[in-house]
Amino acid sequence: MAARAPPLYRDSRTSTAAAEPDRRRQLTRVTDLVHALPSAAATDDVLRQVADAVASVRADGACAIHLLEETTGAWPPVPGACHADLVAPAVVRSADGRWSAPWSPHLDPQAGIFAVAIVARDIVFGVVLLRFEPAASLTDEEREVVELLAAEAALALHMARLNARAWKRQREAEELAWLARALNETLDPAEVGRRIVDSVLLLFDATFSRLRRLQPDGSLRALAWAGTRLDHAEPDNPLPPEAGALAGLVVHTGRPVWSPDVLTDPRLTLSPETRETLERSGERAVLGVPPRAKDTVLGTLTVGDRVGRVWTEREVALTSAFADQAALALENARLFTAEHIARATAEATEEQLRHAQKMEAIGVLAGGIAHDFNNLLTVISGRAQLLADRVGDDEESRHAVDLIQTTADRAAVLVRQLLQFGRRQMLRPALVQPNEVVRNVSSLLHRVIGEDIELVLDLGRGVSPVLADPGQLAQVLMNLAVNARDAMPAGGRLTIGTSNVRVSDTLARRHVGVEPGIYVGVFVADVGHGINETTRARAFEPFFTTKPQGKGTGLGLSTVHGIVRQSGGFIDLDSRPGAGTTFRIYFPPATNEIEEPAGRPAPSVRDVRGTETVLVAEDDDDVRGITCQVLEINGYTVLEASDVEDAVRIAHDHPGPIDLLLADVVMPRMSGPELAEIVRERRPEIAILYVSGYTDDTRVYGARAIEVLPKSFQLADLVRAVRDRLDQRAA
User: Fold this and answer.
1) Are 5 and 101 a contacting pair, CB within 8 Å?
2) How many whole angstroms separate alpha carbon 566 and alpha carbon 695?
3) What is the pLDDT of residue 133?
4) In the chain, what is the straight-line distance between the N-terminal and C-terminal CA atoms, in Å?
5) Over 90: is that where the pLDDT of 409 sits?
6) CB-hemisphere CA count at 13 Å for 689?
7) What is the pLDDT of residue 8?
8) pLDDT at position 184, please?
9) Phi, psi of 532 (to 5 degrees)
10) Of 254, 248, 201, whose CA–CA distance to 226 is shortest?
11) CA quadruple 724, 718, 643, 699: dihedral positive or negative?
12) Secondary-structure percent of the chain, ordered helix, strand, coil, rounded to 5
């Protein structure tokens, strides 16, 4: 049984003529109450019975029981356990450790008052007040009965508190276990957050609870909330960085912060809007704790109640436990998201790499085929041109020769497209202003796209120059315009624009080998029928086309892809069925250190014949034969070399001058440029002219355009190029 507190009563106002109480009746009442306590349905019932028993100690008695509220320190009366309007006294403890309950000065001075503290295990629960007529003072037996009844009330309250705490601990454990299971069931932080705020609200019997996530900019955005909705703390109204609210202080200190009244807390600086909201609601007792992961604050978990509530250490610890669960959920979600993104990025990169390898393999194959085909076409076209000079006026023969030449020219166009896709065509790079190229092409596009398609130019200001072949860039725009025209059979709008743009990390990751940064963008957009996902994935593959058989070669977009990639850029396709198509081309901007290469001179009308000596190095016998024959016809002395060893030997042993080396770029065991370096060691004044139908960036891209004659060539172009190189050397 709890220690009894010595009563303090006003015997100076009680009567000494009190009648002798019925001792047996009082003790019987106490005994009945003790027997009834275990079966009492609720603590309120016990207190009501105690009050009735205390009041019956005196025939003229009245009782009131007041309990101490832990959170506020108030002494409200217990409803149903008050027989009189009595004001609760303060229960105090003296220096010798004894409890006493002085009566209030507001009590009726004409009444007799006996007050007993309700104390169990040094815990003050409340006070029992007995009012009686002062005609007779209480006897020792009557005081003892009241003390016994107060002790029984203390025991009942103590047991009720223990039961309540045990039930609360059980609920807390159940809620934490439930949350732990929830973490295994879902990685959605919002779902876990909702469960956390619901549990906190229920366990604390509070009015609101909120879980906020710390944003990269330092603001706090609500992830989950329960209970009362406060306008200033809703998801659409995040707390800004350095906010003076309690949540901001939690983030700043990284420790739990609580306040019985945030409006009067000197640590907090609240906005007028927040103050007005809190004053209206009265929910000003707030506790906040920081969810942490690896010493990093991830946000705040706050719980609030009516003003005056005092948060206990147990509640702070429990809220911190829930905050730990929130931190675990947020961290798991972050790790899962990061892993998911990394996996998706790896899969996308792997797919891009496979696609790039496939395109590269096709490009190498196309380039190899084009190289051999170019040699064949050079022979066919050259022989047809020589034959045309011999048929005379025979109309049928001339028609046959013209047909051979026309067919060879068509085949040469196809070969050039294959080379462009495989990034093996001969480029003549120069400093190009994209806006100027677009304007020049636009004058031709009107005839290509038709009158029912509106052409719109959206050219940016200050667009940087790029290093590219202007003719090839114009071809890119023409091909894309034709593609847009076919996508808008009923007419529409074609937009071509330029601008300096920043390529983001996300965009760069979609293209193998692309680094983020500043690029020069050229976009071509139509409002046509769009492209589905399957077609988009194969759009740049050679010979892939959605057009009917015989209506297209399938090399238009593959040619665009090859030209852009060989120029150091990349192309991005954005299209959806019914939403039009946009091709965005990105070129690296040219630097000021790049010198603009010399352009190809205008075709000469002077005599292209000559008497100089030309060393022809060509591994294909038929190509070498037609080349040497044409040069000899035009007066040149020709030295033939079937391979690089033969060319080196002739350059070393020939007794006379050698004015020009005419070398194929791609030959077995040594390239044309490598051969030229060896020959120049022996003959430093010799002029060089390369001939090629297949090349790559590492060997010829840096060569000046005037030094390269692409296959297949017209015989007139060959002798003109030889004459130009020789004249340039002489100059």
Assistant:
1) yes
2) 11
3) 78
4) 123
5) no
6) 25
7) 31
8) 62
9) -80, 175
10) 201
11) positive
12) 45, 20, 35
User: Strand order of the sheet with strand 660-664?
Assistant: 637-641, 613-617, 660-664, 687-692, 708-710
Indicate the DSSP class of residue 38: G
Contact, 285 vs 260, CB < 8 A?
yes
The pLDDT, as a whole number, for residue 482 is: 85
Which residue from 524, 519, 472, 516 is spatially nearest to 495, judged by alpha carbons?
524
The answer to whether 465 and 496 are in contact (CB under 8 A) is no
**Cβ pair 322, 196 in contact under 8 A:** yes
Amino acid sitting at position 352: Q
Contact 730, 659 (CB under 8 A): no
pLDDT at residue 109 in the model: 57
Spatial separation of the C-alpha atoms in residues 311 and 202, rounded to whole Å: 15
- Is residue 9 over pLDDT 80? no
648: number of Cβ within 10 Å: 18
> Is the pLDDT score of 92 beyond 70?
no
- Give the closest residue to 179 by CA, choosing from 197, 206, 161: 197
Please state, in angstroms and rounded to a whole number, the distance separating the CA atoms of residues 251 and 214. 8
Answer whether residue 639 shows pLDDT above 90. Answer: yes
- 358 alpha carbon, distance to own chain's centre: 30
What the block records as the tokens of 385 is 């041109």
Position 668 scores a pLDDT of 83
Angle at 586 between CA 575 and CA 709, to 5 degrees: 115
Those residues with Cβ within 8 angstroms of residue 671's Cβ, 6 or more apart along the chain or in another chain: 665, 699
Query: What are 234-277's pLDDT values in tens digits?
Result: 555 677 766 668 888 898 888 999 998 988 888 888 888 878 88
Sign of torsion, CA 287 288 289 291? positive
Q: Render pLDDT for 269-326 as a digit per residue (tens, 0 to 9).
A: 888 887 888 888 888 899 999 998 888 888 899 998 888 888 888 888 888 888 887 7
- 302, 197, 211, 204: which is closest to 258 by C-alpha? 302
